[in-house]
Amino acid sequence: MKLVVIIPAYNEEDSIENVIQDIKKTSNNLLKKDFDDIKILVVDDGSTDKTVQIAKKAKADKIISHKKNEGLGITFKTGIENALSMKADIIVNIDADGQFNTDDIPKLVEPIIENKADMVTCTRFANKPPKMPWMKKFGNKRFTKIVNRITNKNFTDTQCGFRAYSREAAMRLTLFGRYTYTQEVFLDLAFKGMKIEEIPCKVKGERKGKSRLVKSIPNYSYNSLMIILRAYRDTQPLRFFGGIGISLLLPGSIIAILLAIRLVLYHIITPFMSLVWVSLALIIVGALLVVLALVADMYVRQRRLQEEILYKLKSMEYNEENI
Fold first, then answer.
1. Closest CA to 105 of 2, 22, 206
2. What does the alpha-carbon distance between residue 170 and residue 90 come to, in Å, rounded to a whole number?
């Protein structure tokens, strides 16, 4: 069985060598009993420092570089595609900043080896939460609640990138986010019926310096929210559009009924004539959204067929023997 550890990196010259060396130590001490082959894949997202040179010096097995900074979402997809092409049976993604303990990798891969999960993610909040700015901690909790509400699950940390994926889960992934991927992966795999498990892991320490990903908390929050909403729209359009439509249609209908009762009892609508137009607008827009929800739900059926075709093509590409 083969394990590929992905390290997405952007200007991580201060920590990338230690992360690679720690993975090698963990491989020699804890992972050899389960895996015949363990490879380290560094995906450089257009770094302008010595990240690539240091990764080569640390003897990463493979280094892929983007010509420019593409964003974490694109970098993650590049890593997954290359890990699959390397014939990985299990894929682990770990940050390059050294915050996570590589000795936790065996804990992440164990449920996948035992066929108990398709994706296993580190949760930083199951026990004692790590030190982080209150705004970031608040955002983590908010986004986790949104993902839980959409998926009807009870996760505790949907923003952590320290995760393990089975080959099947990796080939099933269909992602569109450019700047982040963490929440979208939860939604995508949950709606595809993949088994997701959380494992508590301790963060080794606070990050030194400014985050390469979260350059601006408002900007990151906006991008993350848009990714979640789009994923929800694309996977559950009946609930997404139908919920909005009914929330407009219902009050519009109630207003219309009340105005009709007033007209029957008093033969007059004034001074509430303006409510006639409000009611009419709510009913029309609500009805249109309900129809849109039904049409979009039919589109989802087509999307599922297309994703199944894509999965078959990936299986043919990644499972074929090297010539």
1. 22
2. 9
| CA separation for the pair 195, 178 (Å, rounded) | 25
Please give the single-letter amino acid code of residue 144: T
**Confidence (pTM):** 0.81
Low-confidence residues in the chain, pLDDT < 70: 127-130, 132-135, 205-217, 220, 320-323
Q: Are 120 and 164 a contacting pair, CB within 8 Å?
A: yes
Q: Bridge partners of 4?
A: 39, 91
Alpha-carbon gap, residue 86 to 78, rounded angstroms: 12
For residue 285, give Cα distances in angstroms to 248, 274, 289, 302.
7, 17, 6, 26
The three-state secondary structure class of 176 is: coil
Joined together, the tokens standing for residue 296 give 């979009």
> End-to-end alpha-carbon separation of the chain, Å?
20
CA–chain centroid gap for 200, Å, is 18
pLDDT tens-digit series, residues 105-141? 999 999 999 999 999 999 988 766 667 666 677 777 8
